[in-house]
Write a structure and sequence with these properties.
The complex is a heterodimer of chains A (about 400) and B (about 130). Chain A is of the alpha/beta class and about 400 residues long. In chain A, about 40% of the residues lie in helices and about 15% in strands. Chain A folds into two domains: about 140 residues, Aspartate Aminotransferase, domain 1; about 240 residues, Type I PLP-dependent aspartate aminotransferase-like (Major domain) (Aspartate Aminotransferase, domain 2, 3-Layer(aba) Sandwich), CATH 3.40.640.10. In chain A, the strands form three sheets. A seven-stranded mixed β-sheet of chain A has the order 2-8-7-6-5-3-4, with helices on both faces. A three-stranded antiparallel β-sheet of chain A has the order 9-10-12. In chain A, helix 1 runs antiparallel to helix 9 and helix 4 packs parallel to helix 5. Chain B has about 130 residues and is α+β, with helices and mostly antiparallel strands. Classes of the chains: A alpha/beta (about 400), B alpha+beta (about 130). Chains A and B meet through helix 10 and helix 12 of A and helix 1, strand 2, strand 3, helix 2 and helix 5 of B.
Chain lengths: ~400, ~130
């Protein structure tokens, strides 16, 4: 049973860099090696490349001006800077921080950390689809709330949050809204001005740019305490000589995403819906995680009863297909994904989850290949499982 | 992450299934933790004549179940009771550290099945 095929459907974990991005970055280390802070031509050329990249990232999210974009080392740093930076710098406004139960660990853990520093953290629950409860959010927004941090779209179950409505509620109580758009950026149009976003986390690799680069949008007038102190780069919010090549690549990725987003998203939605249908229809006791339509164009998250996710991943990997799972058994901890538990799944249901995240190079033919594999994989594992009900055994 | 031996047992599990008229049955773990296994045994002349397993869980859980049945088959009940979790893991060429305690329950399931056999024997004598 030789498998020459290799199909990658784990794009939420990592994406290939677009060849156009690699090409744009190629001259940087040789041509723009001056320090952007230096006065001479070498420095100024690097500065220009950096600022062009900043403009492109700003345009992707319709930021009011390019200076609102602070380049960082990635989404984890951006989330840390936003949450800790706003909390520390605005202590005079309050010590309450609100977030949701479906956030990424790089939001969950900075918030948890702040509770050891005199801050109070509140988790707002989500419904069965993963939508943040607006009613609970409104209730929890006490006077001393300084920051609310909500994910734009969840990378595991794909649910896109109603950011504009969330923003209106948050701003009615004079708190700031930070949005983690790591999974969403490049896939869905984001407009920080019309959606009322105060701080926004962006990730380069999640839009086919290089790793090790990200950005935090900080609306004018919002005070943020830096985490790195040094030469005062990035408006003093992120000291350290700028990563010219990385940011140029990020800028190019943002430019491509902006240009291609609509056609690519439409294509992905067609593939996604074909995949979801094919994963669920032929297999009994199979379910969709998240919402049918209000989900990321590339996310197909499903679950199968009576079997466990990692054994499905191994089975797929044996056939050359890369996916991921919300089961504990693939992670460093023993608990299943907190996101799957937050939408109300039982532990054993969460363990049976399987997530495919599509990307640019995936084709309809690849989707069909995966659809054809799945029934036999599920059947084999169910035959081994003591939980499988009698009617499914043949 | 897994050794070739683990993958080989995952792909081709030995002694998978149920024994409807088993002399002893042992179940350990639970679906909440993500791992649950049941071992069925048939005993003849104090030896494990037949042994089968059913497992819900990750690759390591399936491979350790398969491996324990292979090690235990044909052994005396006393010998089988001495099979440890470490024996099973070693026979598979090792397991990732995180799997050592959560998914390496097969020896426990085997012991539970043998204890169940002894319990049933006592009840028969009564």
């Amino acid at each position: 049973m030789p498998t020459a095929r290799r199909i990658y459907m784990d794009h939420s974990a990592g994406k290939p860099v677009d060849p156009q991005v690699t090409e744009a970055m190629q001259p940087c280390d040789q041509s723009f090696y001056g320090n952007p802070s230096s006065l001479h031509q070498f420095g100024q050329e690097a500065r220009q490349a950096l600022e062009e990249a900043r403009t492109k990232v700003a345009e992707l999210i319709n930021a009011e001006r390019k200076e609102t974009i602070i380049f960082t080392s990635g989404a984890t740093e951006s989330n840390n800077l936003a949450i800790k930076g706003v909390a520390y710098r605005n202590k005079d406004r309050g010590n309450r921080i609100i977030t949701s139960s479906v956030e990424h660990m790089s939001v969950v853990n900075p918030v948890k950390y702040l509770t050891t520093k005199g801050f109070e953290a509140v988790l707002v629950p989500v419904d069965q689809y993963g939508f943040v409860s607006l009613k609970e959010l409104g209730k929890e927004l006490a006077e001393k709330t300084v920051l609310v941090s909500i994910v734009y779209a969840n990378g595991e179950i794909g649910t896109i949050e109603p950011i504009k409505e969330i923003s209106q509620i948050v701003h009615s109580k004079n708190a700031y809204l930070h949005v983690d758009a790591t999974a969403a950026n490049g896939q869905v149009p984001i407009d920080v001005q019309s959606e009322g976003i105060d701080l926004l986390t962006l990730s380069s690799n999640d839009m086919y740019g290089p790793r090790g680069v990200g950005a935090l949008y900080v609306k004018d007038g919002i005070r943020v305490e830096p985490m790195f102190h040094g030469g005062g780069q990035e408006r003093g919010l992120r000291s350290g000589t700028e990563n010219a090549a990385g940011t140029v690549g990020f800028g190019k990725a943002a430019e491509i995403a902006r240009k291609e987003m609509q056609t690519e998203s439409e294509r992905l939605i067609r593939l996604r819906d074909r995949l979801i249908k094919g994963l669920l229809q032929p297999i009994p006791y199979s379910f969709l995680n998240g919402h049918q339509t209000r989900r990321l164009p590339n996310n197909a998250s499903v679950r199968y009863s009576f079997i466990e996710g990692e054994s499905m991943l191994l089975s797929l990997d044996m056939m050359g297909v890369a996916a991921s799972s919300g089961s504990a058994c693939t992670a460093k901890t023993l608990e299943p994904s907190h996101v799957l538990l937050a939408i109300g799944l039982k532990h054993e249901e969460a363990h049976g989850s399987l997530m495919f995240t599509l990307g640019k190079q995936n084709s309809e033919e690849e989707v069909d290949y995966v659809i054809n594999l799945m029934p036999d994989i599920v059947k084999r594992l169910r035959a081994m499982s003591p939980l499988t009900p009698k009617e499914l055994k043949q | 992450m897994y050794t070739e031996k683990v993958m080989e047992h995952f792909k081709n599990p030995r002694n998978m299934g149920e024994i409807p008229d088993a002399d002893g049955v042992g179940t350990v773990g639970n679906p909440v933790c993500g791992d649950m296994m049941t071992i069925y045994i048939k005993v003849k002349d104090n030896h494990l004549e037949e042994i089968k397993f059913k497992t819900f869980g990750c690759g390591a859980a399936i491979a350790t179940s398969s491996m324990v049945t292979e090690i235990a088959k044909g052994k005396t009940l006393g010998e089988a009771m001495k099979i440890t979790r470490a024996n099973v893991a070693d026979s598979l060429g090792g397991l990732p550290p995180v799997k050592m305690h959560c998914s390496n329950l097969a020896a426990d399931a085997l012991h539970a099945a043998i204890e169940d056999y002894h319990k049933r024997q006592k009840e028969v004598k009564k």
